[in-house]
Design a protein that fits this description.
- The complex is a heterodimer of chains A (179) and B (301).
- The longest helix of chain A has 26 residues, at 137-162.
- Chain A contains seven helices and no strands.
- Chain A is mainly α.
- By secondary structure, chain B is of the alpha+beta class.
- Helix content of chain B is 39%, strand content 22%.
- The radius of gyration of chain B is 28 Å and the shape is globular.
- In chain B, 29% of the residues are buried.
- The chains are: A mainly alpha (179), B alpha+beta (301).
- The interface between A and B is large, with 46 and 56 residues.
Amino acid sequence: MAESPVAQRWFGRFWFVVLALGLMFLQLLPLQTIPRTWAPPDMMLAITLAWVARRPDLVPAMSIVFAFLLADLLFLRPPGLLALVILLATEFLRARSETLRSGSFAFEWITVALIIVAITLGNRAIIAVTASHQAPLALAMFQMMMTILAYPAAVLVSYLAFGIRRPALGEVDAFGRPV
Amino acid sequence: MARDRQTDEDYVGPIRRLLVGVLLLALAGIFVVWRIDSPRIERFRAAAIDRVVPNMDWALAPVTGIINLVADFQSYQGLAQQNADLRRELQQMKAWKEAALQLEQENAKLRDLNNVRLDPKLTYVTGVVLTDSGSPFRQSVLLNVGSRDGIIDGWPVMDGIGLVGRIAGVGQETARVILLTDTSSRIPILVQPSGQHAVLAGDNALDPLIDFLEDPDLVRPGDRVVSVSDGGVFPADLLVGQVVLGPDRRLRVRLAADYERLEFLRVLRNQPREAIRDQGGLLTPFAPPDGAADEDGGDNG
């Protein structure tokens, strides 16, 4: 993929949307129709946070809204709510991605973990305030922990499969802009 | 060049913030409208699912098949044992089948003698499970039949044996089935030998909870549980399962349907019963005087 930098950036954005759709597809497979006492990590959230922390230019707000609004509709969640909370969280993370770049991975992980906790609690708080249908607490907490634990895996997969890494300090793109 | 881009950024920044603001407002708007007018947005959700999921149909079945194949391969050793068990079970079933046939014939004869009118048998549409709910918090499946096939919200869904759930959300080509295990599922039931009415409440566990039971002392583990047409929402006498005592010492229902393999499901056509509206006229030996039944007299004449 040695195309022009504009094409590369659009490829990156395109791959994000494809990856999100692929993860939704895997979740929808009718493999599990008996209720579980545990919950798998929300890989879509982990991957999105990893990409926003590392290459925010590849994950525009429109992509996030598209992916998570569709997920809200498909997974019977209150439509728009989780997309709203995640958009806020990613904007927060996006503004800090330059600070994260110079820090260690542990610092990045802790930041992302706090953001995941904030997303889960914020989502539940709004649902509680509007008296909507609340997911079981234990299961939600379990999923939150699993998502936090899955974050390094999301980073690794993004790096190995899509070449998403932290740009070095002072690295510039082909236009000469700092990345 | 670099300087140009840098000044360009200054224009992009505020516009981007504006765009994000608009997106946030739009999402908040969708959520608020959903909270206020849920049926409309739920119809939109059904339509959206109807557009998206049938496109994946070509890939869903083979991928599911391959994954199940791998999972089944791991349990390959158990296969011979399972085969032997099934054969033994089949022998027992044959004996039962013979008994059932004889009883059925006897029943038919007795009914004929008594001139009994029974409910007509329900007809059904069979659909294939396309997807599950995709989230560990909700228990539902999506079928490949929809309003095109005449499916209507609220119809019961069974597998070959027992009740599985009810239709909630119909698109053109797809319909969602809320399983009995979902936390929002509430079904009127009847516990059979004692005739106790209750509500079956899903709570995200495999065995749903029996709620609003009048007299728990009359109900024992092992009792048969069937659906009941209280409120006219469900046809009566669909097998639901058996009463069991849960690990938390509460009465639950072990479902008769095989929830591990939901593949083909029957949607029962549940036509609304004819309701008896008037309370019946007064029976009088003579025709009523002309003042009271003016219109009736006019129609007849």
